[in-house]
Predict the structure.
Amino acid sequence: MDNEKNEDDLSPQESLRLITKMMDKVQDDALWKIAKKRSTFKLSLSIYLLINALLVGLWFYTTGAKSYFWPAWPMLGWGIGIIFQFIDAYLSNGVFSEEKEFEKLKKKMKQEQKKQ
């Protein structure tokens, strides 16, 4: 006789507990991913501000305030990347998430099944 419990022998309560545990893990992973994106954005923004302040200081002390403001070009190029990183970290709400696409397809299939 085998004393180990087979997966088929799980009670409904145990199954529900396992499913809940798995869903919590999935949610934790999703939250971890969002938190990581946001902390990475904050670090990138800090570096952006520091480096661009150094570039502006370099411009000011080498050529003076009346000369061509060349630091605008690296600020603009890098700034576009920072904006996209911000959108991804704070505003995207999973626009490109696999879960939302899966739910859309599932809903569409249910609608098609009702038509038949």
User: Anything to note?
Assistant: The chain has three helices and no strands. The chain has a mean pLDDT of 84. The first helix runs from residue 12 to 63. The two ends are 50 Å apart (CA to CA).
